[in-house]
Amino acid sequence: KSPYNSCTDSSGRVHVQPDASELPNWSGLTDEFFQDYRQLQDIEKFLEDLQSNSQELVVVKEIGRSSEGRKLQIIEMTKRSGTAAEDKPCIFLMAGIHAREWIAPAAVLFI
Questions:
Q1: Contact between 25 and 101 (Cβ < 8 Å)
Q2: Measuring CA to CA, how many Å separate 64 from each of 39, 67, 71?
Q3: β-strands 71-77, 58-65: how paired?
Q4: Reported confidence tier of residue 12, pLDDT bands at 50, 70, 90
């Protein structure tokens, strides 16, 4: 049996992806997170850990759900004392918008 799944999109292009059992599993160690591309559950765990370990700077917020019911999350990073986050200048980075977008979430999380 091949460790890859394939599907054909509406334009007839064939897309090949590894079987979920063949994808790397993240150990949960922050130092190892960026050594491979991560599945959604690993990214969500990374965000939880980031918030837990940096409560004075990081808040993870759910801003809705995708059409498939997946959480749409943002990370707000700011010093919690002083001026409210809404009153500070901001930089907005967005990633993981398209189904086959695999590098952008890793790049944004690395920043």
A1: no
A2: 20, 10, 6
A3: antiparallel
A4: confident
The answer to pTM > 0.90 is: no
Distance in angstroms (rounded) separating the CA atoms of residues 42 and 27? 9
How far is the CA of 7 from the CAs of 15, 39, 97, in angstroms? 5, 19, 20
Alpha-carbon distance of 47 to 1, in angstroms, equals: 35
Q: In the block, which residue shows the tokens 């130092």?
A: 31
Mean pLDDT of 13-35: 82
Phi, psi (deg, nearest 5) at residue 7: -145, 155
User: CA angle, 105 as apex, 15 and 69 as ends, to 5°?
Assistant: 75
Q: What is the rounded CA–CA span in Å between residue 95 and residue 86?
A: 21
